[in-house]
Amino acid sequence: MSADRKAELAASLAQVEERIAAACKAAGRDRDEVRLLAVTKTFPALDAALLTDLGAFDLAENRDQEAGAKAEEVAALRPDARVRWHMVGSLQRNKARSVVRWADEVQSVDSERLADALAKATRSALDSGQRDHPLDVLIQVSLDDDPKRGGFRVNEVGRLAERIGHVGDLRLRGLMAVAPLGIDPAEAFEKLARASERLREDHPNARELSAGMSNDLEQAIAHGSTCVRVGTALLGGRGLASP
């Protein structure tokens, strides 16, 4: 059964890689400029382990409760795999201590209070030996100012970036966003690219631009995305979460 599933994932991964390579070529970019994040939410740990067998080591989750257990299970299944876990979903401050135990990067920082909570939790984890490196973070940007979708207002990104820089134990890597429904993705990603350019004026190391998913990764790459987050095109329809 796992052999069949591995073959399915290998075929899907090859197709996604072809799309990324074609999009990079069309944009005049090198393929190495774009990282593929495999979004394994709702899929079992075995799928994540099989992806690492295929060379996909950047894995993403959007719920702390599911992710923590899954990260432990994958570590047991593939103890030698160099997995890097990313939190890409909405995150409440009271989950900060839990998230820093498994996440190498949080892409969904959308408030100063969350940044403070993550910095405090990271410092505690470093002091206790639960972590051996600071936490990488991205600011989640709202491209339509809809509070229900999460994200920080574009015109206030600089303020949150300064806060992250001052709290310590967090490393600002860049911006993340989701193209809003009902808006041309290309238009949304162009807005995000401009915000990224402004951010790098004061934070030159914040070069990550996480944008583009299964349905719009080509448009995102055309506008400078350095990280595409792919779930459905890679793993298929909604799966069953790990216990």
UniProtKB/TrEMBL annotation:
Function: Pyridoxal 5'-phosphate (PLP)-binding protein, which is involved in PLP homeostasis.
Ranges where the Alanine racemase N-terminal domain occurs: 13-238
MF GO annotations: pyridoxal phosphate binding
Family statement: Belongs to the pyridoxal phosphate-binding protein YggS/PROSC family.
Cofactors required: pyridoxal 5'-phosphate
Entry protein name: Pyridoxal phosphate homeostasis protein
NCBIfam families membership: YggS family pyridoxal phosphate-dependent enzyme (TIGR00044)
